[in-house]
Each structure stands twice: as structure tokens, then as C-alpha cells.
Amino acid sequence: MNHKPVEGFSKLTKQGKIDWLVNEYLEGNEEYQNILKQYWNENAELQKLHEEFSENTISNFYMPYGIAPNFLIDGKLFALPMAVEESSVVAAASKAAKFWIDKGGFKTTIINNEKLGHTHFIFNVESHKLLHFFNFNLKKKLLSATEDITANMRKRGGGILDIKLVDKTAEMPNYYQLKASFDTVDSMGANFINSCLEQFGKTMKQEIAVSEDFTQEEKNSLQIVMNILSNFTPDCLVRAEVSCKIEDLKDDSGISNEEFAAKFKQAVTIAEIEPFRATTHNKGIMNGVDAVVIATGNDFRATEACAHAYAARDGQYRSLTHCTIDNGIFRFWIDLPISVGVVGGLTNLHPLVKFSLALLGKPSAQELMSILAVSGLAQNFGAIRSLVTTGIQKGHMKMHLLNILNQMGATEEEKQHFVTYFKDKTVSHHEVISEFNRLRAQ
Q1: Catalytic pick from 17, 120, 396, 398?
Q2: 3-state helix/strand/coil string of 82-96
Q3: Which residue ranges does UniProt annotate as crossing the membrane (predicted)?
């Protein structure tokens, strides 16, 4: 396939972009034109709104938007919105919520709410000299220079919490950081943080240029490499937990409460010490977290990156959840670092995001942190519960059954037959095909 590069693609109309793609890559097949257009919203104004969320937009990509009800969180009952395409995620979360609703539900604690950003710079100077300059001159100037940027955030109760000079010269020659912590209240705060950091870089350059503390050679060595927030926010942390007496830990799989609790704890411990298991274990947690993150218009890539960095913070990748059994009490919890917002971004624009936040009672950013941690904990509880009892495939494949049947073009009557057929069997792809062929051959 010898395709030609295109000039000015972003300047083409939406139809122009589609025509070029179909003709250049898809042999002019009109079917592909129709696929793209059938996902356009009939409301032209709403369609335009969606197109302006990103660049070079030619259609909308749909994901299922489901509801996981019966979440008792800190004494309040919630129905969680979940945007996710993976079979069994919503079902597993709902089942876990129902399991814990009569055992006190989920309890949460906001441990901290700090977000971080850095000005990364190179400066060929003795570190004690730079530290003295920072403590007695630069820090005050950085705070003063950003007063206009932080004014509105300070009115809402947030702003810059602290600025520190970090010496990283042992790891890279002449490398230092200005490490700043922020409280962005109900916004995720990326633009606010980055604006402050960019001003830090400018102010530092100006102050060093006129300072008598440094030689001209030292001044000439200063390079501001970049000013950028960090998506690793270990001090923006929420804990969610569940607990009950082992005698109340009833499971319908046929094993005793004591055996269930012991096997469950063993499974979590394995994820705490074995990175191969921890990776899949934490992926399941993020199934629950990301689904609500997406539904509320937040950045799931940022939440993923932060969670996985936190899971490896001691040098080995480990489980985000933990479990104890003490004095007959089963306790299961997660400490989740997560930075989200309920104002700014898509929250005031995307109609379904507005619906999600209204459904959750228009939570603050901290309340949303709690909800997200609970969603991840519930998802993990459901997965481990299946793994140590019936096995993961029984529930997962039942949810996947409709996908298989849709691929095979099954009728509604045939789908109902398969639901009944697999009522007391574990679904397998091979068994579905065999039974489907048998049914069609009749």
C-alpha cells in the first residue's frame, strides 16, 4: 500500500477529511462513509460540541454507559455511572455493592489533597549557594510573581501550598527542581498548575540574571528545561474500606466463611508480593475506577499513570489493595492516589458528564475521589471473590456470551435459548459455536 502524505489535513472540512481517508486508505468504499455518519448526533449543535472536544474529529466513538446501583458510601446511597466496554465490570461492581450494603457499606477517608508540579532546570553552581539564594530571595519572589494567577484559586480556598528546591545533581549533572505543591479545590488544576510553573521559570531566570550572588559564567549556565505538573500525586490520597465479622461474611459459593476469608486474604497477599499477579490485580481495580472517571469527564490516563507509579513506589510493583483478619474481623481496603476535578474541562460541557455529576449529587472533588476509590475496591472485591470460589470465567464468559452471539448474527430467540442453555454451565467459545451450529442445523 503506497499512500501519499497529506498537506493541510486539519484545514479540510469534516467531509473533506472523510473523503480523503476513504479514497486514500479504504479504496473509496462508501460503506465506510456510512459507518462514520451513522454515529453522528442528529442534533447538529450537539455534534459540533463533541467535535470541538478534540482535533480532526470525523465521528463519535460510542461506549456503553451503565449504572451500578446500591453503593452505600459513608452512609449515603449512590448509583455509580460507568462508561466501560468490558463485559462483567458493571455487574461485578453492582454485586459487590449489594454484598456490602447490609454490612455497613464502604467507609472513606481523604488522607491528603496535595498536587505537585516541577520546574526542571540545569544550573552549574554550587548547591549551597543556590539553596541560600532560594531561601532568602527566590521563594518570596516566586510567590509574589504568581499572585495574579492564584488570586481566584485562593478565593476558593486553594492555591500554592509550598515551594521547595530539590537537588538532583547526584543523579544528573547540574540538575535541580523547583518542586511546588498545590491545592486546586474542585478542579483537577492542570492549567492552573502549569501556568504557575511557567511563571516560576520566568521569574527564576529574571532573578538570577540580576543577582549579585552568582558569577556571569554561572548565570550563563542556567537552562530552564521545562515547567510541568506531575501526574504522580502520592499526597493526593484517599482510603476506601469495608469490614465485618467473619461470621457475617456469607458467600453463596458453598465454602465456609472462614475458608472464604482465608483464601481471599491469601489472594491479596500474593498480589502484594508477586508483580505478575499484581499487574492483573491492579488492572481490575482500574476497571472500576476508570469507568467512573470517564463517565465524570476526567482523565483516565492520568489516574492510571498515578496509580501504577504509586503501586511501584518502593521499587517493586505491588497490589493497591490490602486485607487483614484480626480478632475475627475481616478488613479490606485501598489507598488510592487520584487527582480529579468536578469543575473545568468537560464537566461543564459534555451533557452525559453533567448527567453523571448530577446523578452523584454534584460531589466536590474530594467526594468524587472517595467514590472512585470505592468503585475500584468494589471491582477488586468482586474479582477476588470469583477467583477464590467459582473461578473468573463463569461470570465473565456469561457476560461475554452476547458479544459472541452478536458476532454470529444470532436472533433474539436464539439469544434467549443460549441464556437458558448456559444457566448452569460455564460459557466457552467452543461450546457456544457447537450449540449454535446444532441449533441452526435443526
Answers
A1: 396
A2: EECCCCCHHHHHHHH
A3: none
For the chain (442 residues), the mean pLDDT of every run of 10, in chain order, is 90 97 95 97 96 96 97 98 94 96 98 97 98 98 98 97 98 98 96 98 98 97 98 97 94 85 97 98 98 97 98 98 98 98 90 97 98 98 92 58 79 80 73 81 79
Determine which one of 183, 186, 241, 299 is catalytic: 299
Find the catalytic residue in 283, 322, 394, 400.
Answer: 283
The catalytic position among 19, 86, 251, 258 is 86
396 tagged catalytic: yes
Spatial contact of 142 and 196, defined as CB atoms under 8 Å apart:
no
pTM: 0.88
Q: What is the pLDDT of residue 437?
A: 84
Question: Which set of grid coordinates corresponds to residue 203?
Answer: 521569574
Residue 80 CB-half CA count within 13 A: 37
Burial letters 373-388, b for 16+ CB under 10 A, else e? bbbbbbbbbbbbbbeb
